[in-house]
Amino acid sequence: MVGIQEDLADSRLLHFESKKIWQIAGPSIFSRLAMFSVTVVVQAFAGHLSDLDLAAISVATTVIISISFGFLLGMASVLETLCGQSYGAKQYHMLGIYMQRSCIVLFLCAILLLPLFVFATPILKFIGQPEEVAERTGLVAMWLIPFHLSFPFQFTLQRFLQSQLRTGVIAWVSGLVLALHAFVSWVFVYKLRVGIVGTALTIAFAWWLSVLGMFGYTVCGGCPQTWTGFSTQAFVGLWEFFKLSVASGVMLSLENIYYKMLVIVSGFLQNIESSIDALSICITIYGWESMIPLGFLAAVG
């Protein structure tokens, strides 16, 4: 009898904990899937332009963007610890300070990564990629710079809100952005016929719209305890914050780029454009899938 009661108590506890995790993990998974799907939509529309355009957008987003994405995302992950500690210690005002500090450090690092985009064409040619693919990828990379510059603010705001269990807000913003992005991409590709440049710009538009949505919620009263306005304290301890986050940035960047280097290797195969297109689609599906465990990791954190 005692054993049955203990099993029932354990079952109720498991149900309670699972419910708590899903309340955080569900919106986190959805928001990650939605923002990742922005890139998927871009690749899908690029595939309607030409095989070369799809290959270019695939190399640019799967390889070049992945380097900056992984590095800046890793740096922003430090904010989860700092904000979590401050929230637990009821030093709510420090969350806003850490958020501003993170934006400053990550944006400066994003500026330092710009040569990766500016010199994408010679870099790709140097590692042996076909000239036509390298030229078109270099063009796409230049127009993806606004997308790259949104990362510091997107990652920082997401972790700032996540540490306060505002995952539902992130999910709503991400869902609306994805829906609007799909419509804008359709207009750009089929109605305005702006080609690969316009397709690349739509992804930047979507991510900056997400940034504005989360920032608007934060400053318009959504986080009254943790957002007390801009502060000069954000400029204090920038070097310490950089040292704390850079190791995490390098680690995650390397982890993120390992399997995506296969796209570069596919450039040495026959039927280059088809090989790159096929492999990038497979990697995109894998990346889509990985958003689910990442959402659970956010809930555990």
From TrEMBL:
Record-annotated membrane-spanning stretches: 29-49, 55-82, 103-127, 139-157, 169-190, 196-220
GO cellular component: membrane
MF (Gene Ontology): antiporter activity; xenobiotic transmembrane transporter activity
Record bears the keyword Membrane: yes
UniProt entry keywords in alphabetical sequence: Membrane, Transmembrane, Transmembrane helix
Family assignment from sequence similarity: Belongs to the multi antimicrobial extrusion (MATE) (TC 2.A.66.1) family.
Protein name: Uncharacterized protein
Annotated organism of origin: Rhamnella rubrinervis
